[in-house]
Amino acid sequence: MMEQEHLIDLSNISKDYDGTTVLSNINLYVRKKEFVTLLGPSGCGKTTTLRIIGGFEYPTTGTVYFEGQDVTALPPYKRQVNTVFQKYALFPHLNVRDNIAFGLNVKNHKIGKANMQRALFGKKTEGNQLQKLSRKEIDKKVDRMLELVNLKGYGKRSVDQLSGGQQQRIAIARALVNEPEVLLLDEPLGALDLKLRKEMQLELKSMQQQLGITFIYVTHDQEEALTMSDTVVVMRDGHILQIGDPKRIYDEPANAFVADFIGESNILRGTMVEDELVNFCGVNFPCVDSGFGENVPVDVVVRPEDIMIVGEDIGQLTGTVQSVLFKGVHYEMMIDTGDTVLKVHSTVMQPQGSRVGINIVPYNIHIMKPMDDVKSEEEAEESV
Amino acid sequence: MYNVSLPWWAWVMMGVGLAVFVGFIILSVRRNHGVKRSLFASPYTLWMIIFTVVPCILVAYYAFTDANGAFTLDNFRHFWDSNHAKNELYATMGDEYAGYITRGTVNVDTLVYSLWMAFLCTVICLLLGYPAALFMADRNMKIGATIVVLFIIPMWMNFLLRTIAWMSLLEDNGLINSFLRLLGFEGVQLMYNSSAVLLGMVYNFLPFMVFPIYTSLSKLDPKLGEAAQDLGCNEWRTFTRVTAPLSLPGVISGITMVFMPSVTTFFIPRILGGGNTMMFGDLIESKFLTEGNWNVGSALSMIMMILILLSLGILRKADPEGEGGGIA
Fold this sequence. Notes:
The complex is a heterodimer.
Chain A: E1 6-17, E2 20-31, E3 35-39, H1 46-54, E4 61-66, E5 69-70, E6 81-84, H2 96-121, H3 135-148, H4 164-176, E7 182-186, H5 194-211, E8 214-219, H6 222-228, E9 231-236, E10 239-244, H7 246-251, H8 256-261, E11 266-274, E12 277-280, E13 283-286, E14 296-302, E15 308-310, E16 317-326, E17 331-336, E18 341-346, E19 355-359, E20 366-368, H9 371-381
Parallel strand pairs in A: 3-8, 3-9, 6-7, 7-8
Antiparallel strand pairs in A: 1-2, 1-4, 4-5, 9-10, 11-12, 11-14, 12-13, 14-20, 15-19, 16-17, 16-19, 17-18
Helix pairs in contact in A: 2-3, 2-4, 3-4
Chain B: H1 8-32, H2 42-63, H3 74-80, H4 84-92, H5 106-137, H6 144-156, H7 159-170, H8 175-182, H9 194-218, H10 222-230, H11 235-246, H12 248-263, H13 268-273, H14 280-290, H15 294-318
């Protein structure tokens, strides 16, 4: 059964704050050892979804299942998940070592209490007879974590003395030392500079593969999502727009919003003339999509790097180069076709003001239903 | 129009102060080719010198001199040996009276009593104030802001008035006793004992405990509580492991702000204690105003000051950054 593979299931989750709907009817499952990213602009409900999984918010309606068990009403301290908070939320009164050991110490305390109750009252408490961790074992685990996050020898430092990147690692270590089934990460790299971010992205990904823990990751950075994830969940206004692996999300966006949000794209209004023929910018282009009907308005999405610049005489379209920007790997050119302005990425520069021809191969033209229709359709079927 | 009549020396002092201030500005503008920001503190510095440093020196002067202005340590001995005069008399009466010489310690008793009362007052304020502050700082409680206002409003009223108001409640014919008699009970003696004094002290000093704690609690990042829960703490353990230790600076500054005025209280015991109880503040006051013995009064004040400085020093150790925002 597929169901058994699912670690977390969100079923028909909705959340209202004082009458404002933040999440409407979210259905989502997460498999074991999967790296799932919730991606969307701010206010799309991605953080709320994460907080519902963590137990910090309770959904207005709907159910959260963890390995098939209903955990909707469980408080955070009874869930087998740990969270890396957006601004780390390290305990300022504890040093690095004590911050990391926090969860283990609390667990020890609980076991001690349960054992004492058993001894005193012969009371049957939940779970098996557990052995307390010795100080040595805790130290060993903490040391291993410090090593994992490359902060060996930082144990005695105060957390205020650490840089943003180091605090970030401590926050990850503090969560991972508890060996959770699932790690929730709420924009953990948001406060870091670009270089550090890229390094941490790779480190996180390798940590996840090394430890075999399920990661649920929230971000608004599409590049981050594409780099790290097994599955990307694109959200907007409390709805899930698309779920898929990064390549599929990038190559076959479900609608113009996803296309625009994931990477750069030209979104054009067009008309489906017939199957495999679309009209935009006043020209008919052969394409690979079909089944929309004839003479139906559609959104056409073309990635800037998929537009080829050719000689003026052989182009499907012609235009004038309006502006040229150097972007490092490529040049970004805005080409005015008279009808619209297209964004084009190319490693070959065309001088500003020159006339060029434009070709687009059929499979790089993505046809989708106009956005207004997508919304109303979503309300109708609401399934993933 | 009010007739502003000040003695001539007051005008001179003000003139000198102003001249120093202006001189200061001119000098520093010249030297630095611009105005230094610390300059604007100079009126306050001047004020401190005239009304804090100079009186302290005067107190020290009186404490170490006798009525004729000669150096002596008698005033401090007097603190320890308050039956000084009586003992001197016995000493002159020959050996058979030697046994009567007593280390009378009325002053020490008063000091111990004051410290004990201040300690009780601080503990009660802490026990009452911490939960109140916790309640006020809770973001989910919409009523919190209202309670803050309720705590502030009594502070707008005069301190004496508030204490006298308690009198009309606790008196033999006061509101509480009248009510008890109305219900057919015997009247109860509520005033003129230590409990009434303690009640008055707690009532007056409670806000000084609540507000520093409230400040440090409301500065607390709610994410820290969530992090603790995430790592396995239930509500109580979250409190003991995260909230309480992080509100410690507020608690320390609250303790300071309650303990110090409590030790030096002198009006409340007179009103609510009716002379049956005497605290160190009352003792100092009576030395100055009733006995007119400025030298002994100054010595007692100095002892008080040293005690306060010591306790401040200890609290500084516990809260080195002064995060509680109190006066410590």
